[in-house]
Automatic annotation (TrEMBL):
Protein name: 4-deoxy-L-threo-5-hexosulose-uronate ketol-isomerase
Top-tier EC class: isomerase
Pfam families in UniProt: KduI
Cofactor note: Binds 1 zinc ion per subunit.
EC number per UniProt: 5.3.1.17
Family the UniProt entry places it in: Belongs to the KduI family.
GO biological process terms, semicolon-separated: D-galacturonate catabolic process; D-glucuronate catabolic process; pectin catabolic process
Length: 273
């Protein structure tokens, strides 16, 4: 399991490209036949991918770093399938996850088994104090918010799946934003939320395209060049916004002090440096 300790905004000035990528970018999540995981000490989020292959079922292991008998002993998990249709079997109950479906698994869920060649299950987990029920929601069946404008190249549909008015959880707030064709910008004007860490998994970006992802405090920004199906960690003090050389989608997911989606500190465009 990849371990990433927490970073402070004081570490941003002077960080070169390699350092920024080591700290904030996860380049490979979907490795056929494997479950990958990164433990970030920002809000103790674990994110990764489960990619079944060769017709074999792929169990979710526990990891030494968790000091837990099984992965979900003290945690909850949000899953979004960004690949072909697959299944997740949870303590004997099979859930079918077509592309774009989101499954929530509560604390205490013991056995989690992924299956389906071509399925790519994105995993986002946070510590949980109690058990909320396991629940599945299909693509487009959450709360949908239409954001942005063609004139500012940021028309996008934001789907909220795990949130206060949808699938309930202890900490996780999770959904998928889809850029409309011809729109390239997400989350601009940008924001921070000092009470939550957020991660983005960019996907459905053409192979030759890239996203220029902005991070840092509003007064001290940097960028990462991000390829398809790579993830970024955005500490509470960092903006998280990107522009693609092509349209794309991303899974956004947060954990921390509260679950209030609109608890954001705006970072006006004219304040960015
Ligand atoms: O705190 C919320 C997150 O940054 C995202 O949900 C923003 C987003 O998906 C978008 O603007 O398209
Ligand atoms: Zn945010």
């Amino acid at each position: 399991m990849d371990q990433r300790y927490a970073t402070s905004p004081e570490q941003i000035p002077g960080a070169d490209t390699a350092r920024l990528r080591d700290r904030f970018l996860i380049e490979e999540l979907f490795v056929p036949g494997q479950v990958t995981a990164t433990y970030t000490h920002h809000d103790r989020i674990v994110l990764g991918g489960a990619t079944p292959a060769g017709g074999a079922a792929l169990p979710l292991p526990t990891f030494d770093e968790l000091r837990a008998e099984y992965f979900l002993a003290n945690r909850e998990l949000g899953i979004v399938n960004v690949g072909a249709a697959g299944t997740v079997t949870v303590d004997g109950t099979e859930y079918a996850l077509p592309n774009g479906a989101c499954l929530y698994l509560g604390r205490g869920t013991r056995d989690v088994v992924f299956a389906g060649d071509g399925a790519q299950f994105y995993l986002f987990s946070a510590p949980a104090h109690t058990t909320y029920p396991n629940q599945l929601v299909l693509k487009g069946e959450g709360t949908v918010r239409e954001l942005g404008d063609q004139l500012t190249s940021n028309r996008r549909s934001l789907n909220q799946y795990i949130h206060a008015d949808g699938i309930r959880s202890c900490q996780i707030v999770m959904g998928v934003t889809e850029l409309h064709p011809g729109s390239m910008w997400n989350t601009m004007p940008a924001h921070t939320h000092d009470r939550r860490t957020e991660c983005y998994l960019y996907f459905d970006l053409p192979e030759e395209a890239r996203i220029i992802h902005l991070l840092g405090t509003p007064a001290e920004t940097r960028h990462l060049v991000v390829a398809d199906r790579q993830a970024i960690i955005s500490p509470s003090w960092s903006i998280h916004s990107g522009v693609g050389t092509s349209a794309y989608s991303f899974v956004w997911a947060m954990a921390g002090e509260n679950q209030s989606f609109d608890d954001m500190d705006p970072a006006p465009v004219t304040d960015l440096r």
